[in-house]
């Protein structure tokens, strides 16, 4: 693609993004615990794709995520080496990341990813340290990793005739290494055998079906798929306990043996007597699923799938607390809505073909004042009803404390001060169910709702004839029949909607392109596929935005189109959208050709952030001819290339990217223009030695002229603002860095009637 003005340097090995990505922030969920590890003074927890460390002395919590250099892929195993002060993270795809806990630096280890074996059997299942070597259990076998040199050793393929087999876990007992495999029992070999790469050196120790093994108090303990816990007595495995369901984790330390299943944690002492049995209902009335557990200094720590770490003491195992860094409920945010002071997130969802099944019964998350508030599902539906699949949040522009949440099954939910006050459905509104004769207030498909300038709330009601609805300021409902514009209303699915300055509603559909409507005359029109019907590449439109020049940007499942002016709605001619043609290697190409576009957002400088289903996110110039940024999971802290939603805090310029693996933000400079120059300011000021960023002049009005001179009046920089902020790289027109000194910043409105003078000191 075109030459970019900015690229991140991808460091494939050391350090990653931690210190250089000061423009990025991470907003991750730490609720879904994949694995835990420990030292005497700290608990290490791996969530879905991020870590947190709890200092057991100070009770402080440190988080580590993609902004710090972790991968956004799914974590499958994690281990902390006390001897080497390193934390090793393993992933589903075979990636390993070694975190140096002394300085926070990271090493990405891609050797397993690069192995010439099928990609679907590279998952890392377990780490076991012995004499400075980490034995990595994978879906194909076992790999040695030397912690002193951070290099790989041998790889053991221990299946029949050297076949690749899944290894769940390994342990050392009486100078032998034992490996639990998926369908080939327990394999055993002498740990000091120099020829363990020969599969013949591994003998079958037990032919049973096992999924865990550990050494505890000089005894070999196994977890069997028959739900039993067994110890080896020298001749055979003897049962010492029953889990009651298939176990998911077994581990031990000097004092306790800990066995975990989804609904049980059993803790045994050195005599193998059970000293604690914990079940989810004892800790919370909400659904809890256990994933792993350990003990440290007389305390129990249990990983859950829903609420981080559950902790208690062994002396009183039912006095529970939860440990989880502040964050949203989960990482797969379906959509977000940002205002100047709040960010709302919902988890949806529906499939690519707008199917809400299976339903998601999840609540709402709100980020304000640097804290997340998670409203549970129990508080987002009324007694006796269900409100699954919450897909969009609309904030009342005149009252931020009032929001409307669309359910793709149960209608429209109204909240005030974070409390549910009304659920609009067929019994109390103009909304309709898919099946008119259905007595239930269900199957009401509401996607996005949008306020017009008069304060009326418009929305689409899918799969019914009168599919366009409006809740007026007088609390009256009105419906509009869309059967005249839709090819088949029951096949139509509606997506995002925007309203232009003339009050025309522009609606994304899956089968009819873009549908436009204005109630002044009750006129429907559409832009669809085909040269004479609107020139879209496909009828399935997923994203839509009106820019500062009244152009309509249209994102489809197969590319981008732009309607030159929304005012063409009033013309008698068929509206036609055009592709943006750019030069790539001297050849004309269509911008975002055949890309699945998921969202389009216009910033304060009329630039376009465009998200895609598998290629990350782009920032284009106002006309689309220049690529300013292209962020992916490989060159930025984006945890995934799947972009679900984008939104911008127009006041601060912070751009939020909601992906299927978590949300991050980028500090943009295109902020909303101010009404006057009274609040104009400069930061940082002073600019100190070693600073490598840019100076921002913020609080500007639109099209303000900015001139920067040295103290003698020599001009060093000049620009015109499009939004509320401009940047200066502290060079004289990009040629060389200016010297230390005080620099004058002269700001003037487009007509010269409003002016402001600011100063900035630069210290080299």
Count the DSSP helices: 1
Uncertain regions: pLDDT < 50 for 5+ in a row?
Answer: 1-20
What structural category arises from helix and sheet content? mainly beta
> In angstroms, what separates the terminal alpha carbons?
37 Å
Mean pLDDT: 94
Percent range for helical residues? under 10%
Task: Briefly say what this structure is.
Keywords: Signal. By secondary structure, the protein is mainly β.
Write up this protein.
Residues 43-203 form the PorZ N-terminal beta-propeller domain. This is T9SS type A sorting domain-containing protein. This protein is an all-beta fold. 1% of the residues lie in helices and 45% in strands. It is built from one helix and 64 strands. The strands form 17 sheets. The protein has a four-stranded antiparallel beta sheet with strand order 1-57-56-55, with no helix packed on it. It is globular and about 90 Å long. The two termini are 37 Å apart. The model is unreliable at 1-20 (pLDDT under 50).
Quick tags:
764 residues; mainly beta; Thrombin, subunit H; Immunoglobulin-like; 4-stranded antiparallel β-sheet; 64 strands; 1% helix
List the helices and strands and how they pair.
Elements lengths: L23 E4 L7 E4 L3 E5 L4 E5 L5 E4 L10 E7 L4 E6 L4 E5 L5 E4 L14 E7 L2 E6 L3 E5 L4 E6 L10 E7 L2 E6 L4 E5 L12 E4 L3 E7 L2 E6 L3 E5 L4 E6 L4 E6 L4 E5 L2 E5 L5 E5 L1 H4 L6 E7 L2 E6 L4 E5 L7 E3 L11 E4 L4 E4 L17 E5 L2 E5 L14 E7 L2 E9 L3 E6 L2 E6 L20 E7 L5 E6 L5 E4 L5 E4 L13 E6 L5 E5 L4 E5 L4 E5 L13 E6 L5 E5 L2 E5 L17 E4 L2 E4 L6 E6 L5 E5 L4 E4 L6 E5 L11 E6 L5 E6 L2 E6 L13 E3 L11 E4 L6 E5 L5 E6 L4 E4 L12 E8 L6 E8 L2
Antiparallel strand pairs: 1-57, 2-3, 3-4, 4-5, 6-7, 7-8, 8-9, 10-11, 11-12, 12-13, 14-15, 15-16, 16-17, 18-19, 19-20, 20-21, 22-23, 23-24, 24-25, 26-27, 27-28, 28-29, 30-31, 31-32, 32-33, 34-35, 35-36, 36-37, 38-39, 39-40, 40-41, 42-43, 43-44, 44-45, 46-47, 47-48, 49-50, 51-52, 52-53, 53-54, ...
């Amino acid at each position: 693609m075109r030459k970019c003005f900015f690229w991140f340097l991808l460091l494939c090995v050391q350090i990653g993004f931690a210190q250089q990505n000061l423009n990025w922030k991470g907003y991750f969920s730490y609720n879904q615990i994949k694995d835990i590890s420990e030292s005497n003074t700290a608990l290490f927890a791996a969530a879905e794709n991020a870590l947190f460390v709890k200092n057991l002395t100070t009770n402080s919590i440190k988080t580590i995520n993609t902004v710090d250099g972790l991968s956004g892929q799914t974590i499958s195993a994690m281990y902390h080496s006390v001897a080497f002060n390193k934390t090793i993270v393993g992933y589903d795809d075979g990636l390993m990341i070694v975190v140096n806990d002394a300085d926070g630096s990271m090493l990405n280890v891609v050797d397993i990813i690069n192995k010439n074996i099928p990609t679907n059997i590279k998952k890392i299942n377990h780490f076991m340290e012995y004499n400075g070597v980490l034995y990595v259990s994978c879906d194909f076998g076992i790999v040695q990793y030397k912690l002193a040199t951070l290099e790989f050793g041998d790889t053991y393929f221990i299946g029949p005739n050297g076949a690749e087999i899944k290894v769940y876990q390994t342990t050392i007992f009486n100078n032998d290494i034992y490996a639990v495999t998926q369908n080939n029992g327990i394999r055993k070999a002498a740990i000091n055998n120099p020829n363990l790469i020969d599969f013949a050196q591994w003998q079958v120790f037990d032919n049973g079906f096992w999924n865990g093994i550990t050494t505890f108090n000089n005894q070999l303990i196994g977890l069997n798929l028959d739900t039993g816990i067994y110890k080896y007595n020298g001749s055979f495995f003897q049962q010492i306990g029953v889990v009651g369901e298939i176990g998911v984790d077994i581990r031990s330390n000097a004092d306790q043996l800990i066995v975990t299943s989804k609904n049980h944690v059993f803790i045994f002492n050195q005599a193998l007597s059970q000293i604690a049995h914990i079940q989810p209902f004892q800790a919370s009335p909400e659904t809890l699923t256990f994933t792993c557990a350990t003990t440290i200094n007389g305390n129990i720590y249990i990983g859950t799938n829903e609420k981080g770490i559950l902790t208690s003491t062994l002396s009183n195992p039912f006095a529970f607390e939860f440990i989880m860094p502040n964050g949203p409920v989960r990482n797969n945010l379906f959509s977000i809505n940002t205002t100047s002071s709040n960010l709302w997130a919902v988890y949806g969802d529906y499939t690519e073909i707008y199917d809400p099944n299976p339903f998601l019964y999840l609540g709402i998350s709100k980020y304000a004042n640097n804290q997340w508030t998670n409203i549970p599902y129990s508080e987002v539906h009324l007694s006796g009803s269900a409100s699954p699949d919450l897909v969009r949040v609309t904030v009342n522009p005149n009252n931020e404390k009032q929001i409307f949440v669309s359910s793709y099954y149960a209608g429209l939910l109204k909240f005030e001060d974070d409390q549910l006050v009304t659920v609009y459905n067929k019994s109390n509104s103009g909304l309709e169910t898919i099946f008119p004769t259905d007595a239930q207030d269900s199957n009401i498909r509401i996607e996005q709702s949008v306020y017009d300038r008069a304060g009326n709330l418009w929305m689409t009601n899918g799969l019914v004839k009168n599919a366009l609805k409006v809740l007026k300021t007088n609390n009256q409902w009105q419906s509009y029949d869309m059967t005249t514009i839709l090819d088949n209303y029951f096949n139509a699915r509606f997506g995002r909607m925007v309203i232009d300055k003339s009050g025309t509603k522009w609606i994304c559909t899956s089968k009819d392109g873009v549908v436009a409507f204005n109630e002044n005359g009750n006129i429907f029109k559409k832009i669809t596929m085909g040269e004479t019907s609107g020139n879209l590449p496909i009828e399935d439109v997923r994203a839509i935005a009106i820019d500062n020049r009244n152009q309509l940007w249209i994102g489809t499942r197969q590319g981008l189109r732009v309607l030159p002016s929304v005012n063409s709605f009033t013309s008698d001619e068929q509206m036609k959208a055009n592709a943006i043609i750019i030069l790539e290697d001297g050849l004309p190409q269509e911008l975002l050709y055949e890309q699945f576009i998921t969202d389009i957002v216009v910033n304060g400088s009329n630039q376009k952030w465009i998200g895609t289903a598998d290629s990350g996110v782009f920032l284009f110039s106002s006309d689309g001819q220049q690529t300013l940024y292209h962020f992916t999971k490989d060159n930025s802290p984006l945890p995934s290339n799947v972009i679900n939603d984008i939104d911008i805090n127009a006041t601060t310029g912070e751009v939020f990217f909601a992906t299927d693996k978590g949300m991050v933000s980028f500090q943009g400079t295109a902020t909303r223009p101010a009404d006057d120059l009274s609040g104009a300011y400069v930061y940082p000021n002073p600019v100190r030695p070693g600073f490598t960023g840019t100076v921002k002049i913020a609080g500007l009005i639109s099209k303000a002229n900015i001139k920067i001179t040295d103290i003698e009046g020599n001009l060093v920089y000049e620009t015109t603002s499009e939004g509320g902020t401009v940047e200066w790289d502290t060079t004289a027109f990009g040629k060389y860095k200016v010297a230390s000194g005080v620099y004058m910043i002269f700001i003037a409105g487009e007509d010269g009637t409003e002016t402001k003078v600011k100063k900035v000191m630069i210290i080299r």
